[in-house]
Design a protein that fits this description.
The chain is α/β, with parallel strands linked by helices. The protein has two domains: 303 residues, Alpha-Beta Barrel (TIM Barrel); 31 residues, no CATH class. The protein has 13 helices and ten strands. The strands form two sheets. An eight-stranded parallel beta barrel has the order 3-4-5-6-7-8-9-10, surrounded by six helices. Strand 6, helix 4 and strand 7 form a beta-alpha-beta unit. The chain is globular and about 50 Å long. The two termini are 37 Å apart.
Length: 348
Amino acid sequence: MQYRQLGRSGLKVSALAIGTVTFGGDGLWGNTDTREAQRQIDLCLDHGVNLVDTANVYSNTLSEQILGEALSDGRRDRVLLASKVRFPTGKGPNDRGLSRWHIIRECEASLKRMKTDVIDLYQVHEWDGQTPLEETIEALDTLVKQGKVRYVGCSNYSAWHLMKALAVADAHHYQRFVAQQIHYTLHSREAEYELIPLGIDQGVSLLIWSPLAGGWLSGKYTRNSKPEGGRQAQGFREPPIYDWEHLWNIVDVVNEVAAAHGVSGAQVALAWLLQRPLVASVIIGGRNHGQFEDNLKSVDLTLTAEQIARLNKVSRPPLIYPYWHQSFTARDRLAPADLSLHSAYLDD
């Protein structure tokens, strides 16, 4: 297992992390019970995984409860535990968002459900445009000072949201976000426009959710073999597919590369992510033991330079404004953060 620095912190996380959205559930995401959760966690621990990611709203709090039971018998001391806050947890007007009231209450509730004294990484799950950032960042800083949280991060922020949050933290000497949990895949590379350059410049690492694009990049589905059941067949919209031909072109190359290595398409899609800049950990999940076993093998898969180039080419997004203009006129003055986007286009 590889271990990577998490942002501007001294914390090192495994390149792969355990996702727990399947813990509990109604079958759409999964219905992993405590016993199976322990089997999956033990498998990942045996492979060196040290980060487990959950959220207070996964399976209506059941994911955290199952995780609390599954991390018994000494497992808690072997993992870094990450959770999130933001989405509705009740019908009251304050049972959502990133107010001080909601953040502190939900953190304390998560601690009880997971039977732990501290959350190693506490992440705001989504933007809240109705709560002043000063209030949100101060509440997170308070939790760190109280010893209930060790590090803080964000998820699903746009670049200006994240930059403003970092500015607030710096101005008031509050805890900074060390990580941004985002959706980033061969199919969805929008983060390369701003979130990744910002993260490089400001020291905010990437944690990747749904790295197989909701299963579309697993290699199981092609233009000639589409899902008959599960989330995809039910029209699940994460991620949204705007251009099916573009998706299938990517899947074609993923499966060709997979065949060359004798591995699954999922391993190829994960291995591509693991070599992208700023990625600290890729969150993997599975409905069963076998899916975890397959995903874990991706950390040992080495793609050739030619294979990476093929994957990059078939999935590369077009430069949008102002980046196409910068590519034409600012290429002589680009910083390393700029080049994380522009380097692939400078020969065009």
